[in-house]
């Protein structure tokens, strides 16, 4: 069994009066891809956003329970939220490059952190673009706008931006939902390469994608964790009837 990177203990979350997560407990292993699956509104993206405190930006949200990344409680008093988001990178459903050059997109987080040394920024930019399998496609036009790239390239640029600040964990919320099959395959190939360096958690509606890219899968339904196991086991021998109905397409 792999070493645990993320521990979630009895996690609950409310949007105002509505409870969206109910007593979720799970351990996410280091240097693996863990997929969150389930029908729309089941809580998988909400739980993902708890792991870098993105829900803090929503009015009326309350959480209880513990969220530990490398043993550090993300919600402990005095926790630096900026530091949490540096250690836990996020890639969103819709690629969101800044209206800046490719280079400035990648080094944006480093500049925010106060790094000005050009050699350091240049090195980080190349490393991140190589890690995101984008360097060969853009190395001769780093000064052009990130918005000039194709949809799939923009999403890899956002992954490079997340990698550049050297996080420990990368969260991905439906990163391929707006991409064509070829761009999707490039992102999936990338996940296999990245997990040797990062712990990756991906939310996906695409069951085939979860089966292809993840080592472990968690199935959510109505804000509850129904089943969590090795991906191959969940898709071939689910233990819960609701999981079986979902992965075989009977509902969802």
What is the number of independent domains? 1
Sheet with the most strands, sense and barrel status: 6 strands, mixed
Number of helices: 10
Low-confidence stretches: none
User: What's the overall geometry?
Assistant: globular
User: Helix content range of the residues, please?
Assistant: 25-40%
Mean pLDDT: 94
Cα(first) to Cα(last) distance is 31 Å
Would you report the number of β strands?
10
What structural category arises from helix and sheet content?
alpha/beta
Rg result = 18 Å
Going by CATH, the homologous superfamily would be P-loop containing nucleotide triphosphate hydrolases
State the order of secondary-structure elements, H for helix, E for strand. EEEHEEHEHHHHEHEHEEHH
Beta-strand portion reads 25-35%
Widest sheet: strand ordering = 6-7-8-3-9-10
Quaternary structure type: single chain
CATH architecture tag: 3-Layer(aba) Sandwich
Characterize this entry briefly:
By secondary structure, this protein is an alpha/beta fold. It has helices at 44-50, 81-87, 102-112, 118-131, 135-138, 151-164, 181-194, 207-213, 231-236, 241-247, and strands at residues 4-15, 18-29, 33-37, 61-69, 72-73, 88-91, 169-173, 199-203, 216-221, 224-230. It is globular, with a radius of gyration of 18 Å.
